[in-house]
Specification:
Strand content: under 5%
Number of strands: 4
Helix content: 55-70%
Order of helices and strands: EHHEEHHEHHHH
Strand order of the largest sheet: 1-4
Distance between the termini: 57 Å
Number of domains: 1
Shape: globular
Structural class: mainly alpha
């Protein structure tokens, strides 16, 4: 007898209402926890509260806009997918531009969020905090990691970003995944890796490691140590999890490594470069 988990939880909190939903609640919860983490760091370094408020504004805006546009441009679909009978199987963003702003329906790309956050923090470091760019990068990565954990849990309740078909005993049957319902029918839904859960667990471990470095190893005194470690751990874990994850772009079916993996490689390389330089400067 196969062991698996029937995943029937949905994002809907009120029957018949698409919002508010559990996905949004998890998303906001991650941001709130991240806020309290960075607040403690700012107080430790005697940074004024008004600069923290501005940081929250920059981060929330960059996360939502960047992650959403990243999903739209990196993964698509760009245009409606229509069957031979003229039935729209999947809506495309360029065919339905208003769908781009429907963040509550899911569809956020961490790589897009990362790029937007870097741009926003560059502006913040120069215009608001007036400290080196690496200073703010080192202090924001732990909050970003814990926020990422909650966002992936949101993907889990949304039955999206699922893993490949598997026989592992902890596999999930995503009973509300549209593609599986359409391709297999309710009675034959396949068992899949809970890739969202894998990524969430990795983010929690990364969060714990970063806090340990900051508070126990005085990483705040070594510019680049936190940020370099974060890039290597987060995007390396993303790269390897993609091997058991269903590609999010149609082209991924034909590629040796998928879109998520290709986008992760530059971040890992940059992290290695930053960490190498930092350790070289501070080695005893």
């Amino acid at each position: 007898m196969k062991l698996f988990i029937n995943w029937d939880i949905t994002s809907q909190l009120i029957e018949g209402w698409s919002t508010p939903n559990l996905y949004g609640l998890l998303f906001v919860s991650g941001l709130i926890i991240g806020y309290f983490v960075i607040k403690r760091i700012y107080r430790f370094e005697n940074i004024e509260d008004d600069k923290l408020d501005k940081l929250v504004f920059y981060m929330v805006l960059a996360t939502i806009i960047g992650a959403r546009l990243g999903h739209v441009f990196f993964y698509g679909p760009y245009f409606d997918q229509v069957s031979s009978e003229g039935i729209v199987l999947e809506r495309g963003y360029f065919s339905n531009p208003l769908d781009i702003i429907k963040v509550w329906e899911g569809g956020l790309a961490s790589h897009g969020g990362a790029i937007a956050i870097l741009i926003a923090l560059k502006i913040y470091s120069k215009k608001v905090i007036q400290k080196p760019f690496m200073w703010i990068l080192d202090r924001i990565v732990a909050p970003v990691a814990i926020a990422g954990a909650f966002i992936r849990l949101g993907n889990l309740v949304n039955h999206e970003i699922v893993g490949d078909i598997t026989n592992v005993p902890w596999g999930f049957k995503f009973l509300h995944n549209y593609n599986d319902l359409y391709n297999y029918g309710l009675e034959n839904i396949p068992i899949r890796h809970p890739a969202q859960l894998y990524e969430s667990i990795c983010c929690i471990f990364i969060f714990a490691i970063l806090l340990f470095l900051f508070w126990k190893k005085d990483a705040w005194k070594k510019p680049g140590l936190m940020f370099g470690t974060f890039l290597i751990l987060l995007f390396s874990s993303r790269f390897f999890i993609e091997f058991v994850k269903l590609g999010q772009a149609s082209r991924d079916e034909y590629l040796f490594i998928n879109t998520g993996q290709m986008l992760s490689i530059p971040f890992v390389l940059v992290g290695i470069y930053i960490l190498w330089n930092t350790l070289g400067k501070y080695k005893s």
